[in-house]
RNA sequence: GGACUGGUAGUUCAGCUGGUUAGAAUGCCGCCCUGUCACGGCGGAGGUCGCGAGUUCGAGUCUCGUCCAGUCCG
C-alpha cells in the first residue's frame, strides 16, 4: 500500500517526543513510562458538555468521540483503510473475549500486537470480556476468583480472572484496556446488584494490582479504565462512582447501562455518576448508543462512546442520516434515486442512491452492508465532529435539543 | 390418436387409508437490534386446493367429464 498503517513501535522515541515521563498509575515503577494525557479544551456553559484531547502512544483523539466496534479486530464490512481514510475514525474498539478465543491472544502477541496484526495505526480500546461473557457465553459461573464460561464458538471451557483479563489485554496491546467487571442485567434485584458491584470493585483492585506489576508486550503505554456499576440504584451508583473515582485512573467508564432500562433512567444514572467522577479525566459511557442517546450523554459530561448500533443496524438495513432514520429495505425507497446523504462527505453518501442501496439489500448483495456500515459510521463521525464544533462555539445545548428531535424521526 | 404422470400461496413443494379456521420453505411487506450476530431475530399479508359435475353428514383427498403441462407408445 502506498501509505503504511503500521506504526513503528519505538517506545523511547514516542516517550521523548511527548516529553512526559511519569510513573504508571498503580504507583509501581517497573520502568519509565508515558502516561495517557487528557486535556480539556472547552466547556459548554449551559450543560456539562466539554471538548478535549486524549493523547496516547498511537496519537491524539479529539473528544467527545465515538469508537466504531471492531469485535474481532476489524469493523465488519469495512477495510481498515476505509475506517482510517474514508470514515476517519480516530480510535477503534475491539474485544478481548473474541480475540482470546480466536485466533488467541498468543497469536496476536506473536504478530506484534493488535495494531500490527490488523494494520490499524491509531489508538485501540479493548473491552475486557466481562460484558461478552455476560451476553454471549452459553454457560457461565461467576465466583469470587473470576468467571468460568463456555465458548460460544466451540463450547470449550475457560476461566477468566481479573489478572487473566489484564494479561490478555497486555498481549493484545490496546492503548486503553478495561477492568474486568460484571455487567448486571436489567431488571436486577438490588441485593444482587450490590453484591455484583462489590465484587466488581474487588476485581478492580486485583486488576490494578496486576496491571502495576506487568507491562505491555509490545512497548506501548497502556491505560486501564475502571468501570462503574450499580444497575439503576442511585445509592449503588453513587457508591460505585466514588470507589472508581478513588482509584485515580487516567479515565473512567460507566457500565451496566443501555441494557434495556428506560432511556430516562439511563440519563439519570449517567448524570449522577458524572457528578462524582473526576472532571479532568475522560468519562466513557459503554455501549451507548443511538445518535440521540449520545448527544444527551455528551450534555451530561460523557467524552467517549462505543456502540454496535451504526454497524449492526446498518448491516440490517437501518440508516442514520442528518434528517432522521431510514429503513432502507422499505418499499418506499424503491424508486428514490436521490443520494443517501446529500451534502455528506463520504463517497458513498453521494455516490449511491437510496434506490440502489435498497436494491443491494433486497438482492442480498455484500455491497449492501458495506455501504450501510460506511455511511452510518461516517454519520456518527460527522455527528461527533459537529458536537465538538457546537461545544466550542458555545451553542451546544440549543443545537442538541434541535438535533435530538430530528435524529429520532423515522423517514 | 392412445397410455401414464402431474396440476395445492408469487415460486418450489408437503398434505397417511376423505373429518376442526389447508401446511413448509423461499419470495413479498413491516417491525426490531445499545460495551455480542456480514447475510440476524420477530410479526404480517398471500390459496374459491386447474375447471365442471357426482358420491358422501362431510372431498385437496374418491368417481366421471373437461382443460393444461410433461413423459412414453402409435
Describe the structure in brief:
Helix content is 42%, strand content 17%. It is of the alpha/beta class and 411 residues long. The protein binds one RNA strand of 74 nucleotides through helix 6, strand 15, helix 12 and helix 15.
Description:
The chain has helices at residues 11-18, 80-87, 96-101, 105-111, 114-118, 130-135, 162-172, 190-212, 234-246, 263-276, 291-299, 309-315, 347-351, 354-362, 367-393, 396-408; strands at residues 37-43, 50-56, 59-63, 65-68, 92-95, 124-127, 140-142, 147-150, 157-160, 176-178, 223-225, 227-228, 252-254, 283-285, 304-307, 318-321, 324-327. The chain has 411 residues and is an alpha/beta fold. The strands form five sheets. A five-stranded parallel beta sheet has the order 4-15-14-13-12. Strand 10, helix 8 and strand 11 form a beta-alpha-beta unit. Helix 12 packs antiparallel against helix 15 (367-393) and helix 14 crosses helix 15 (367-393). Residues 1-33 have low confidence and may be disordered. The structure holds one RNA strand of 74 nucleotides.
